[in-house]
Amino acid sequence: MTIVGHLINGEMSTEAKRTQDVFNPSTGAVSKQVALASVETVEEAIAAAEKAFPEWRNTPPAKRAQVMYRFKQLLEDNAAKICELIGKEHGKIVHDAGGELKRGIENVEYACGAPELLKGEHSRNVGPSIDSWSEFQPLGVVAGITPFNFPAMVPLWMFPMAIVCGNTFVLKPSERDPSSTLFIAQLLQEAGLPNGVLNVVNGDKEAVDVLLSDDRVKAVSFVGSTPIAEYIYSTATANGKRCQALGGAKNHAIVMPDADMDNAVNQLVGAAFGSSGERCMALSVAVAVGEEAANALVSKMKAAMTSLKVGAFSNEKNDFGPVITRQHQEKVNGYIDSAEADGAVIVVDGRNPEVVGYEGGFFVGATLIDGVTANMTSYQEEIFGPVLQVVRVDSMEVAMKLINDHEYGNGTCIFTRDGEAARYFSDNIQVGMVGINVPLPVPVSYHSFGGWKRSLFGDLHAYGPDAVRFYTKRKTITQRWPSSGVREGVSFSFPS
Ligand code: NAD
């Protein structure tokens, strides 16, 4: 059986004292094995990155960017293959994989602007004949640890920017769907990246713990679930590393009585069930303000959901595919069971859908649950499946309080025609990414992505302008050439 291995110093290897099954979630069959890197293998990758750093650091930013231009072209040329690799191991439908890849490529495009982004700041004559400037120097070896749900896009949030900033990189992708990530890394190598600048080690906690403790790793970018994000952040920072750790979510949409209900329903269907709800920005809770809005929302959602198709990744006519593993399918079904046991109403039940020809697949159908309240486990925890829960409230203030009180603060949205209400909402809601009649307010590549509260540990968001800050150290230089300026005697106080 094929073993998905590592890319270290430009060479592929399948070192594998331990391996793990990789599934095709559409069929439920094991398709490959992934090598789980040992401590020695991760150390080898770090050593390769450290060795490549001095030369890469001094490579002109324009030359570094030229590699990214070629990489972008190779990603586009190989899009069909990448989408198939994603579909086979993640389960998302090919058109959805294409959307993920496109968003990833936009981050490569932004990285191509490195020479502009790294120009720094300059002030002439901060004192008599004294100039001062700040420059942004790379950190050294940096690491990225990524989740299963965006095997192409999330790694592309990280390493293109880290690398154009002059760092070298060790990536530890999700062991559940590793093939597309590894293939993308090979494309960057093909684009002309020197050996050792990007290394990929597949693995699990054993590999991650090396990246968190090795002194040669200067910074860690993480995206995944909140308990692991918290562990990564506390361990990496305790070991003196810079860290940004993006975690889980529970994204609410407020549906106001004046909303364009047909539009809100269309938007909610895509945002709740697209990618089987396995998106950190998925809208998983609709908070309907007023009985009339709630009744209209539930009946229109129910009608819209009758035509949804769940099925294998390879059929473009399907709306969404399976969830990632059998265990995750059971977990999602368990949340639906618990909501029912807690007294909520299962309006559309997606447990155990029939998918003809794919009986072994890990499918959960689109599910709508009404009458959910804040004390229910299914409300408090992230489900990460195609499940939309409806909470009924009687005012916008109560709806906003629900959102502000929730432990997560990744994304949110309001559906309304009232500009004043929308402005009040965006101004006061305790969430990092806000949509106004936009269900998935994922920032474009030239802004930055990140949640608030327990959806992000650290200060800087992912990609965009924050990534330049995260992947560089500011150095400020103040310069005077006494021969061309004023010569001063001894001074014991700051010049004023
Ligand atoms: P996960 O936390 O299980 O895994 C993420 C990464 O951490 C993987 O590479 C995994 O190998 C590693 N890991 C897992 N357990 C570990 C441990 N005990 N010690 C060290 N490393 C460990 O997340 P997942 O299931 O792959 O992804 C889904 C989660 O990611 C969801 O919670 C989702 O909301 C979140 N997510 C967040 C964002 C965001 O931007 N905020 C984006 C995508 C996904």
User: How much β-strand is present in the residues?
Assistant: 15-25%
- The name of the CATH superfamily of the largest domain reads Aldehyde Dehydrogenase, Chain A, domain 1
Please describe the biggest sheet, giving its number of strands, its sense, and whether it closes into a barrel.
7 strands, mixed
| CATH-defined topology of the largest domain | Aldehyde Dehydrogenase, Chain A, domain 1
The 3D shape can be described as globular
Counting DSSP E segments of at least 2 residues, the number of strands comes to 23
Please report the distance between the alpha carbons of the first and last residues: 72 Å
Radius of gyration, in angstroms, nearest whole number: 24 Å
Number of helices: 16
Q: How is the largest sheet built, in terms of strand order? A: 15-16-17-14-13-19-20
Unreliable stretches covering 5 or more consecutive residues: none
Bound molecules: nicotinamide-adenine-dinucleotide
**CATH architectural type of the largest domain:** 3-Layer(aba) Sandwich
Helical residue percent? 25-40%
Counted up, domains total 2
CATH top level label of the largest domain = Alpha Beta
Backbone structural class: alpha/beta
Average pLDDT value?
97
User: What is the subunit organization of this protein?
Assistant: single chain
